[in-house]
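Please decode residue identities from the backbone states below.
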């Protein structure tokens, strides 16, 4: 990776690109999960609202129909009202309304471990058993699971159906076909389950997540292209100019033009090079005026700097004659 040692841009760009790649990969995993969780939360919120509506209808039916007609001997209420002239029980109203609405993507179920005889063949599946156990221990809780059924993503939301009125308690405790006869107000009488198909929402979320990732990739490319243009114009080109100036001065060329228009660090570098160039020109002029080799001349031509023009030449020494030796 020699280009990292030779290019200042790639020393800056490579970590930035790596960060963008990591962020995009993270978004590719995070965004779909976030949208999926949003779809599940939306299904749970809709299930809560649906249960409230069904309970409201059942309460109205219990107080304004069942309570008024219960004392009449010619009117009876039964879970099998379709086969005779009897009226449906409040719980049966919920189940009948669920059958009418099941083709609209939402299914409501009402079940308990104590069913009436006409529903005794219905057994709780694993989710129903887990929901009953959980809600029996957490009467105000909500039990939620997301499962795949026949290739569809289904959110199953189970909520408690408590015994809230004395009329309900009395009805269940006095009916001959009731499987449990010691109910009390506040007991968990059953589980209301809402099953919602979120396959369409998840498909839309998957498309949205792909568009989000593509948009981020496109934005990253635009940002990197713009950053490259700015880096090239504001940093790389001025630094290349400064490098060329320094090389020319090192070769003895003091006539090169130095242009600096910015006031940043690169601009300060060019100003310093310009000042150095002017200083060298001044020193060279002083040296020429004094007929002295300039420091640059002494560096590039050492032989010319060994003798100064003002230094006098040394005179050769005269040899002395030896003194005569006197004999005694």
């Amino acid at each position: 990776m020699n280009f990292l040692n030779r290019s200042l841009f790639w020393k800056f760009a490579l970590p930035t690109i790596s960060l963008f790649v990591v962020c995009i990969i993270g978004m590719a995993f995070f965004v779909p999960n976030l949208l999926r969780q949003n779809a599940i939360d939306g299904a749970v919120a809709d299930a809560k609202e649906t249960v409230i509506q069904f309970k409201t209808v059942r309460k109205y039916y219990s107080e304004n129909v069942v309570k008024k007609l219960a004392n009449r001997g010619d009117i009876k209420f039964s879970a099998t009202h379709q086969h005779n002239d009897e009226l449906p029980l409040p719980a049966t109203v919920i189940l009948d309304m669920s059958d009418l609405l099941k083709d609209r993507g939402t299914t409501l179920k009402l079940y308990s471990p104590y069913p009436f005889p006409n529903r005794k063949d219905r057994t709780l599946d694993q989710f129903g058993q887990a929901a009953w156990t959980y809600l029996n221990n957490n009467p105000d809780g909500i039990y939620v699971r997301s499962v795949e059924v026949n290739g569809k993503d289904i959110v199953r939301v189970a909520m408690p159906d408590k015994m809230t009125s004395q009329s309900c308690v009395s009805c269940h405790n006095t009916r001959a076909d009731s499987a449990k006869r010691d109910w009390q107000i506040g007991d968990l009488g059953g589980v209301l389950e809402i099953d919602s198909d979120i396959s369409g929402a998840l498909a839309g979320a998957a498309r949205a997540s792909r568009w989000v990732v593509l948009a981020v990739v496109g934005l990253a490319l635009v940002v990197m292209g713009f950053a490259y243009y700015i880096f090239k114009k504001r940093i790389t080109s001025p630094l290349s100019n400064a490098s060329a100036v320094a090389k020319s001065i090192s070769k003895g060329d003091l006539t090169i033009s130095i242009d600096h228009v910015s006031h940043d660090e690169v601009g300060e570098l060019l100003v310093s090079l310009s000042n150095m160039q002017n200083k060298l020109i001044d020193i060279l002029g002083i040296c020429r005026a004094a007929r002295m080799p300039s420091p640059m001349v002494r560096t590039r031509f050492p032989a010319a700097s060994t003798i100064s023009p003002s230094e006098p030449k040394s005179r050769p020494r005269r040899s002395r004659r030896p003194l005569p030796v006197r004999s005694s």
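Observation: The longest strand covers residues 152-162.
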